Fold this sequence. Notes:
single chain; alpha/beta; seven-stranded mixed β-sheet; 7 strands
Amino acid sequence: MDVLRRHFVAGTIAGITLFATGAAAATGTMAIYKDPQCGCCEQWAEAMEAAGYKVDIHDEADMSVIKTRFAVPADMEGCHTAVIDGYIIEGHVPLEAVRKLLSERPDIAGLAVPGMPSGSLGMGNDPQATYDVYTIAKAEGAQSTVYYQVRPAK
């Protein structure tokens, strides 16, 4: 009886921990469009999958077609493009920003990390990295704003 009780308690704690960390908060399938030769995109996709998101990878030889298809502004373009629950996730957006987006569900098209910042998720994942995550507005010509900031822990 004590063994069963310990297993129940351990299972309950594990479930609460998964929920609290957001791993259980993954919703729909994340479609990830990337160059088939890109290793950093693969690392980013693996991190999303490890966080509990169901990942569907699409290798694309011409990423410009994907950027146009999802109306990613040229100044917001990153390495790869992902789509989940109707949101665009452009480039090396950190897991915390993806979780925040899916939790808050703001009226935006998505999030972007332009370029390939050193130390971002998939680009070394350096805790000392500093970069911003921007909104991708729904309205054409609307300004992007900083949605999330990645800064070193103090």
